[in-house]
Design brief:
alpha/beta, globular
Length: 662
């Protein structure tokens, strides 16, 4: 049977991606989309039924084979494989946080002079969380003490991680009663990996229990710390105006793509790109200047702080080079395809790796060192500028959409009440009244085995129609940015009547960009503050909210899903189910987790079923809280659009509409 090869229109819902996939076919350039069509997924591994944890295997538990050579059952093997994925995903975020803590320490001690404390207010706030004295002390001293205290959390030998205390009191009690509070970031990762070694933990429920504890060390540990330190060093995000999609590349400028997840590098490249000497150097090579654009979570980091435009999400990294207009793609860690090398070789693009953790055969390696950060950033940009005269034919699809990102939990608090009266009460009141039916967090990846961006576009549009506020991070956020969902005006076009009224009143988009994948901790903070504010129960599990990663592909996504479920949320993952080989594991992660921690994790393949189950859950939580049944007919009779409609009436009819009399 011939393998199904998708047309560009079947592979992506993004018109820029479709145009470049057609270009790839013309040039006979292979992309991840083509490889996904060519490579058939292993059905045994896809269900979690293959164990290769020792040299007695690999053991494929199919047909009549229901135990491995060591006697491990299907339930143990499936749970063990899931646990390993969670440990790796959590380790990625935790190690990211460690690097940021070390950078903060170097900056505080004057050993990384290119970094400054951009948000001293947040520094003081976080320092207090760690019990550090702040009154009457220099900023540098506080920063040093915070960095050391944070670094101690990775390997402390007793106690519990600090950020757990940010959760609602009821949630903390649940974790402590169940022994789920993380002891130290690294400890939980090592503990979980140790359990998956041959001959260790062979009880599916016990493995999944520690998976939750490990994931919590990410969500309420590494990720939360990484977000806080990034804000301290580079500024807490607030709304800015920018653009998204590959049309942000410039024909007349040196284009540099920053891709990965480390803001320490990308922020320095942003600074270097504004150097007058480098701009003049670019002009000496025939360019008008230097244009930066981002891919993946580095894109989100520099977007929400510096307004650097988004070139695209995960599946567009190869397509960016296919434009022929990119002089350099600078990468650091996570979500970087090795397939970039052969594509870059077809063009004049230089692929530059920078992290001591990541090298790619065939790419240029320029190791980044925070102690001379700006110097290295300038060196990288000079190399990119030198490539500009080598540029050949270009093909830049003219697609880009405006967006307003930068909705940190601090800014949402401010937007809802101002500087002196910041509060989540207006949001809670809107949910209680029914103007907002509930909240959905749609996060995470793209997956070439799902039509690019299709699930993100579909579920977000359906939720907005149903008056559900959507918050997004990661590549899901980039998808909505490209679709035009992230401007205040979008509320007038696609939101239901109640959500539209709220967005009009506050001046926010119906889809809030909350940052990179590591910034899902901001969503946890928002949910905690909503629970603490009152009116929506006492815990995250009480709130009419759902988390999801509709096009997930990475182990980080599984770690995020697990810590959200362990925090009390209902979490849906789109696409394939990596635990489908064990009905027991499926039951433990749904019914078992819901009974134990109030949250659950489900894998649902179809987008319309994701929407149905999410809305069903939101309505159930509303009913459990005694809130009025959702009724959109009650709303939509006020707002600027209605005022304009009235003003367009003849004078007599206008008076009647306003005052109800002639």
């Amino acid at each position: 049977m011939a393998k199904k090869v998708r047309t560009p229109e079947e592979a992506s819902r993004d018109p820029a991606a479709v145009a470049l996939l057609k270009r790839a076919a013309e040039l006979e350039v292979e992309t991840c989309f083509a490889r996904a069509d060519e490579i058939v997924p292993c059905p045994i591994g896809a269900e979690g039924l293959c164990c290769r944890n020792c040299a007695m295997g690999p053991c494929r538990l199919v047909g009549k084979t229901d135990r491995g050579v060591c006697g491990a059952t299907i339930d143990t093997v499936v749970a063990r494989n899931f646990a390993r994925a969670v440990a790796v995903g959590a380790a990625s975020h935790i190690d990211h946080a460690r690097d940021l803590a070390r950078t903060l320490l170097a900056a505080a001690e004057g050993k990384a002079p290119d970094y400054k404390i951009r948000d001293p207010y947040k520094l003081v706030e976080v320092a207090k969380d760690f019990g550090i004295k702040t009154d009457g002390r220099e900023i540098g001293e506080i920063a040093r003490d915070l960095a050391l205290a944070a670094l101690a959390e990775f390997g402390q030998i007793e106690g519990e991680v600090v950020y757990v205390r940010r959760a609602p009191q009821k949630r903390q009690q649940i974790w402590r009663q169940l022994g789920l509070v993380p002891r130290a970031y690294d400890w939980e990762v090592v503990d979980l990996l140790h359990r998956t070694h041959i001959g260790n933990d062979q009880d599916a429920e016990h493995l999944l229990h520690q998976s939750m504890r490990c994931a919590l060390a990410d969500g309420w540990g590494g990720s939360m710390l990484a977000t806080d330190i990034t804000d301290i060093l580079f500024g807490t995000p607030a709304p800015v105006l920018s653009e998204a999609n590959l049309g942000v590349l410039r024909e007349d400028m040196v284009n540099v793509i920053i891709h990965g997840h480390e803001p320490t590098l990308s922020e320095m490249i942003v600074a270097a790109a504004q150097d007058p000497e480098l701009i003049e150097y670019a002009k000496s090579k025939g360019a008008e200047g230097i244009n930066l654009a981002g891919i993946c979570c580095t894109a989100n980091e520099t977007l929400m702080r510096e307004g650097v435009p988004l070139a695209g999400n995960f599946l567009q990294q190869e397509l960016a080079i296919l434009t022929g207009a990119v002089e350099a793609m600078v990468v650091d860690v996570q979500c970087i395809m090795e397939g970039l090398v052969p594509i870059a070789d077809r063009f004049h693009t230089e692929l530059i790796t920078t992290s001591p953790k990541v090298r790619i055969a065939g790419a240029t390696h320029i190791e980044f060192d925070e102690h001379r950060a700006l110097e290295i950033a300038k060196e990288i940009l000079r190399r990119a500028i030198d490539r500009f005269p080598e540029r050949g034919e270009t093909f830049i699809p003219d697609y880009r959409s405006p967006l307003v990102p930068g909705f940190s939990h601090e800014y949402i608090d401010y937007a809802l009440g101002g500087y002196y009266r910041g509060s989540f009460r207006p949001l809670n009141d809107a949910i209680i009244a029914g103007r907002i039916r509930g909240v959905v967090a749609d996060i995470g990846c793209n997956n070439p085995r799902i039509c690019h961006d299709e699930y993100h576009y579909y579920v977000v549009s359906e939720f907005l129609k149903n008056d559900i506020l959507v918050v997004q991070t990661g590549c899901g956020a980039i998808a909505s940015a490209k679709k035009g969902f992230m401007t205040p005006e979008a509320a007038l076009e696609i939101a239901g009547p109640g959500l539209r009224e709220v967005c009009e009143a506050i001046g926010i988009p119906p889809v809030l960009h909350m940052g990179a994948c590591v910034d899902n901790s901001r969503i946890l903070t928002v949910l905690s503050q909503m629970a603490t504010e009152g009116g929506l129960g006492e815990d995250i599990a009480d709130i009419p909210a759902v988390g999801m990663a509709t096009e997930w592909m990475s182990e980080k996504a599984l770690a995020i899903a697990t810590y959200c479920a362990a925090s009390g949320a209902y979490v849906i993952m789109g696409g394939r189910n990596p635990v489908s080989g064990s009905e027991t594991v499926i039951r433990l992660m749904t019914e078992g987790w819901e009974k134990k921690v109030g949250g659950k994790l489900e894998f649902i393949a179809e987008a319309d079923e994701i929407v149905r189950k999410a809305i069903e859950h939101i309505d159930k939580k509303r009913a459990d809280l005694g809130l009025p049944e959702y009724d959109p007919s009650k709303w939509g009779k006020s707002g600027d659009w209605r005022i304009q409609e009235v003003l367009d009436l003849p004078f007599e009819e206008r008076i009647q509409a306003i005052y109800g009399k002639k």
